[in-house]
Amino acid sequence: MEKELFQLVEKGTSAVMVVQEAARQLQEAGFEELSFERGWGLSENGRYFVRHHDTTLFAFAIGAQAEFRDAVRIGAAHTDFPCLRIKPNPDVSAGGYGQVNVEVYGGMILNTWLDRPLGISGRVALMGEDVMHPRMRYISVDRPFMVIPNLAIHMNREVNKGVELNKQTDMLPILGLLGEGVKEEKMLMEFLAGELGVRQEDILDYELWAYCLEKPMRAGLKEELILSPRLDNLTSVQALLSGLIGSSPKKGLNLIALFDHEEIGSRTKQGAYSMLLLNLLEKINGSLGKSPEQAREAMYNAFFLSVDVAHGLHPNQMGKMDPTNRPVLGRGLCMKEAGSQSYATDCEAVAVVEQICRKWDIPYQKFVNRSDMAGGGTLGALASSILPVRTVDLGVPILAMHSAVETMGAADLKALGDLVAAYFKTV
Fold it and tell me: CA torsion, points 225, 107, 22, 239, in degrees to nearest 10?
């Protein structure tokens, strides 16, 4: 699965590009694309996927016996990640430099984005003949396109004592140099128009993101580590894709949900806190001739894996971890628990996953936040409030979560892939 993850990281430079690469993998494996706007003629043994607003994707495999009461297996992850969103009217000219006006998306570690090669990725809406359906174009510039330089230590002697970066003034990337005497130039808009082969006035709006261009790589004395951008949460996306593609359910339903907007709370039309997943399950059941009552009965026996990264123990900051639940990189996937239910986990659901791990000899660990430190949340708690089924939050432990480049153990990726594959085989 490592090869597929590396490719997903390199191709998945924004949520829309993650979905495009996921769709490519699914189509290559024989999955048929559907649309929410049309009726579905589903069949037993069928394999399907559907996109929603370009940045969320669902895929599912129906068993030879479409009896869902005891065998609905759901896995979910998110397609977005912390990065820099390019604002409308993006071009800024300052002191002979062309810059880009951006805003911070998600809870990124700001200083890790300095002095990095940045690309640009996303989608652009163009004038079209039908005003209700603009022409949509996609772009991913995979060359060093922008950079946010640090201020030299000679001009900032206190930098190693810690400096707070201003999100508006300190995080603007340099796009290029202006010609002598030029005070203002629409560098980015001119580039977009040329890249897309359209006039600048044809560009109505866009969702464009600056992303870290560095490539995933092995590291460590024995190459037991993986360094890469976007490990949160493309590790989980790829594990679910590989697990579903490799599954052939004898009965029931295997389903993955790849949601957008987890990094900003999931409360959007393509986020996990929407009605999307519930609507999808109702449409699947209805297409297979099941009544709404039968569909509801089946759903209450479903199982849900919320797959997202966890915090690994940092050797230089060991006091930041719980004294008895401190996962170490390379020792297996991680199940996350919280009394606050910020991680949607209960002991019965955890026991199910533990038994799968033990049956298939998959290494696993547990993570709980220190009692005096607030932790993060995942889409699992939100999604399971709408779809009230047994849910477990789990994923690979990583270091430097929300940095431009994160670190994980290569063995943990294998453990996660093995767990998802076994999960989709368990009836």
Answer: 40
Alpha carbon 141 to chain centroid, angstroms: 19
Contact between 23 and 57 under an 8 Å Cβ cutoff? The reply is yes
Question: What are the tokens at 189?
Answer: 């808009």
User: Which bin fits 423, alpha (ψ -120 to 50), beta or left (φ > 0)?
Assistant: alpha
Distance CA 259, CA 236 (A): 12
Percent of the chain predicted with pLDDT > 70: 98
In terms of Cα–Cα distance, which of 90, 119, 86, 84 is closest to 184?
Answer: 90
Residue 333 backbone dihedrals phi, psi, to 5 degrees: -65, 170
Of 305, 409, 406, the C-alpha closest to 350 is: 305
The pTM of the full predicted model, rounded to 2 decimals, is 0.95
Task: Tell me the average pLDDT across 201-210.
Answer: 96
- Measure the CA–CA gap between 418 and 290, rounded to whole angstroms: 32
Q: Are the C-beta atoms of 245 and 256 separated by less than 8 Å?
A: no
Report the C-alpha gap between 344 and 383 in whole angstroms.
Answer: 9
Region 16-30: mean pLDDT is 98
Residue type, 102: V
- Tell me how far apart the alpha carbons of residues 168 and 165 are, in angstroms, rounded to a whole number: 9
DSSP 279-346: HHHHHHHHHTT--HHHHHHHHTT-EEEEE--EEPPPTT-GGGS-SS----TTS-EEEE--TTSSS---
Q: Which of 304, 300, 302, 364 is nearest to 336 (CA)?
A: 364
Rounded to 5°, angle at Cα 106 from 22 and 314: 90
Separation of alpha carbons 253 and 256, rounded Å:
10
Task: For residue 23, count CB atoms less than 10 angstroms from its CB and return exposed for 0-12, middle for 13-18, buried for 19 or more.
Answer: middle
Alpha carbon distance 357, 415 (integer Å): 9
